[in-house]
Structures are given as structure tokens and as C-alpha cells.
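Worked example 2:
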Amino acid sequence: MAYEGVKLRELVDRAVNHSWSIPEFQRGFVWKPTQVRDLLESLWLDYPIGSLLVWNSGGPVEEQHAHDSQRPALWVVDGQQRTTALCILFGRKPYWYPSVDDWNRSLAKYDIRFDVNATEPPYFWVANAAIRRASRTRYVPVREVLVLDTEKEKDQRLLQELAKRVNFEGFCDGLDAMEVYTKLDRIRKIRDKDVVVITIGHDLEDVVEVFSRLNSRGTRVTEADIYLGVVAARNPGWVRETFLPYLRVLADAGFAVDPNLLFRTMTGVGIKKVRFRNIPDRFWKADRIKPAWDRTSDAWKRLIARFKEFGILSSDPMPTQAALVPLVAMVDKYGDDRDFSIGLYWFLQASRFGRYSGSGTTSLDEDLRDN
């Protein structure tokens, strides 16, 4: 295990230049715009943002997205959300981002601005329509400042010109252009703050266990994330090439379900359990996962087609998605023909009365066992 201090600008460089990547069992970027803003404000206020855990694989590993001939040995295990958020704040696309179009949408969604007039929190805002219509010298896009390296004459001149525009337009009342420059430069200097990076060298399945230990300490890693990591370790490429694309297929059909729920439908179909720790180890091997997945994806396809016949065009109106797990299992076992209306009635009643609230996994396991 090794420790090093890495400047934020260097961390972003590593993500952009593919010196770091993320293994396929890592989930995508899920932070809300307010979380990205809060990360920046923590850095502005000199609050700690925690260390990053990086895995030195020492060999080839399946990436979450398509890869090129450069295969990094260093993989972000804990800190992907923060690393991606920093790349967004700098306006620089990390290599692992799915596509340019996705990246451009993210830049618009996570458009964080600095209020030059602020003398107390909040200093930073998620840009809305009103902020975008306001002067860019009142609400300064932080990515335009964080990328500046004032050791370069061109960048120093850009920051000086911005400070002069702020002063000329009457913002930062009582401050001259040099004092405005100092205020803006405080944002720019965030790029030189250090974060601790811990590097470990273990087998892939040990890294999945690290996920589990982190989860027990309160890190937001779900049980399904951990076992999806097990599947990724034993079935290289399956998560990236099969599981994640199918989530997009479902979303395009109107059913934007959580990855954890989709994973539970597979175990519900394949072994009639959703409490992962009770699932035998042999189930996670390729010869069991593939047939279970084929049955699951087929059941989802048939279920969505029948839903639409009954006027259910998306998952949005559903009070809970948990009842989809046994319904998918029922479609797999009994088909989707004459008995579907009975299954649909059960689904609506289970959703209405909160059958799977509280100890939901216990009720799900009971219903799957009796199915």
C-alpha cells in the first residue's frame, strides 16, 4: 500500500490522459449538480474531501467502456464520483466517459458558477435559466478559471482581463481590479490543492471485498454494487457489453430502472433470491449467469410489451419498482398470455399496499420462493 499527495490538476490529467481508468464493475456518474457544487465549495473553504483509493492491477482488466490499446494499470476503486466531478469542474472529459454527446450534456447539467459579489455562502451556484441570462462577469463559469495556469503569460492575461471586466461592470463593490483578481485567483488556486491517493495491489476479487469493507463504514456502495463486482471479476466484459447497455434499452422503452433492481430481477429469475449473501457462490460463474440473463432479458421484453397493451407506458407512475422483480420472475415462469391479467392485478395491489417497503428483501425472497 502506497500513499501520495496529488494535486487536483494532476488528478484530472490522469483521468483525461487515461493514466487512470475505472473497472467495469464501477457504476456510472450519479452525483446531482448540487453535490458537484458542494465539492467545489468544500475546496474553496479548505474542507477535506477525503482520500482516493486506486488499485494497481498489474495486468489487464475489463474497462466499463470501450478501450483503446493503452491499458492503464491504475484503476479508481473509491473516488470515481469525486474524480469525475473534478473533471466536470475543470471542463475536461475523462477518458472513461461514455461519449462526447454525454459529456456535453453533463457540462450543461453541471454548470457551476461563482458569484463574484458573494461575501458569505453560497459562493457557488448551479446555473439556472436566470443565471445564464445574467452577466458572465457576475456569475463566472468556474471551468473558465480552474483551467488557467498563471505561470503561462496567456493565462495570466486572461485572468487579469476577467478581473478588469468584473470591476468595469460594477461588481465587487469597493474592490479594485487587483483585489478582484486576487478573489478570482483563489478559485484558480484550487487546482493546486492536494488530495491523498492510496494505491493498493490486490487480486480483483480482493478489490471487490474492499468495496464491501468500505460499504460497512458508510460509503455509499450498495450490496448489489459489490456482487456486480463479483460477476465482473468472473465474467470479463459482461457488465460493460451486456448489462449496462440493457439498462439503456429499458430506459429507451420508458423503463429507466435502477441497476440494482435489474440485477435483482436476474437473481430472482435465475435462483429465486434477491438477498445476495444467501446466493451460492457457484451462481456467479459464467455457465449460470448467461442462461439466467437470457431468461431475464426475454422476460423484461415480454413484460414491457404487455404493460403497453394495458396502457402502462413507463415506470414513472409506479409507486415502487420493487414489485417488478417478482413480476419479471412470474413472466419468466408462467409466460405472458392468459394469466397475465392476474399477475398484473397482483402487481398493482402489491405496489398499492407497500408489500416491499421496510424489509423488502425478506418479502421479495418469500414471494420468489413461493412463485
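The mean pLDDT is 85. The CA atoms of residues 17 and 204 lie 23 Å apart.
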